[in-house]
Amino acid sequence: MTEPAAGAQTNGRLEVGERLRAIRVLRRRTLREVAQSAGVSESFVSQLERGRSNASVATLQRLANALGIEISDLFAGEPQSGPRVLRRQERQLLEWGHLGRKALLTPKPFHSLEVVAAAFDPGGSTGDEPYTHGDSEELLLVIAGQVHVQLGSELLDLSAGDSVNYRSSTPHRVTNPGDEPAEVLFVISPPSY
């Protein structure tokens, strides 16, 4: 994944925030209700909706659960029928965790498979805490760089070309301990983001 421009990061944050707000309003939920259900502050949700803040995967998961949606609903585009090409520069990047970005490569309505490309700057991670989502089969493949993958209490060191598979219900966290950016693919079946 190439480094996005600052404007692209802000636009991605704003798009996620706008989707979050649209879904919240559609479901007739107040900022307070969603915030309390997700265990975050009302002002944080407001800032997220306005694109002035970003959230860890675990926090986005709690917000999605509070709204009764999948986390991918916060950044997936309009569904298209038939095959399509998604150019690297056209990926809708979502800021993820700490110094990380991700893009859904299999737009809805893919019912059997979900592929997410993620990039982590040096020191980046999926967030401060491990997270879970559903109970799907998940494969993480390191495309470039090196990462530490925490699966429950186990810590694995993976380099480019290495992969690990696990259940998405296993608390997991990815960090980039290196001095170079790292790029990984998450392959999930059935989709559970």
Give me the CATH architecture of the largest domain, please: Sandwich
List low-pLDDT spans.
1-10
Strand order of the main beta sheet, please? Answer: 1-2-3-9-4-7
Helix content: 10-25%
Q: What do we call the CATH homologous superfamily of the largest domain?
A: Jelly Rolls
Percentage of β-strand residues: 25-35%
The N- to C-terminal Cα distance equals 20 Å
Can I get a quick summary?
This protein has 193 residues and is of the alpha+beta class.
Describe this structure in words.
This protein is α+β, with helices and mostly antiparallel strands and 193 residues long. The chain folds into 2 domains: 69 residues, 434 Repressor (Amino-terminal Domain); 102 residues, Jelly Rolls (Sandwich). 25% of the residues lie in helices and 31% in strands. The strands form 2 sheets. Strands 1-2-3-9-4-7 form a 6-stranded antiparallel β-sheet. Strands 6-5-8 form a 3-stranded antiparallel β-sheet, with no helix packed on it. β1 and β2 form a beta hairpin. α2 packs across α3 and α2 packs across α4. The longest helix is centred in the first third of the chain and has 21 residues. The chain is globular. The relative contact order is 0.16. The N terminus is likely disordered.
Blueprint of the fold:
Layout: H1 6-26, H2 31-38, H3 42-49, H4 57-67, E1 94-96, E2 98-104, E3 114-125, E4 137-144, E5 146-151, E6 154-159, E7 163-167, E8 172-175, E9 182-189
Antiparallel strand pairs: 1-2, 2-3, 3-9, 4-7, 4-9, 5-6, 5-8
Helix pairs in contact: 2-3, 2-4
For the structure shown, list the relevant keywords.
single chain; 193 residues; alpha+beta; 434 Repressor (Amino-terminal Domain); Jelly Rolls; 2 domains; six-stranded antiparallel sheet; three-stranded antiparallel sheet; 4 helices; 9 strands; 25% helix; 31% strand; globular; disordered N terminus
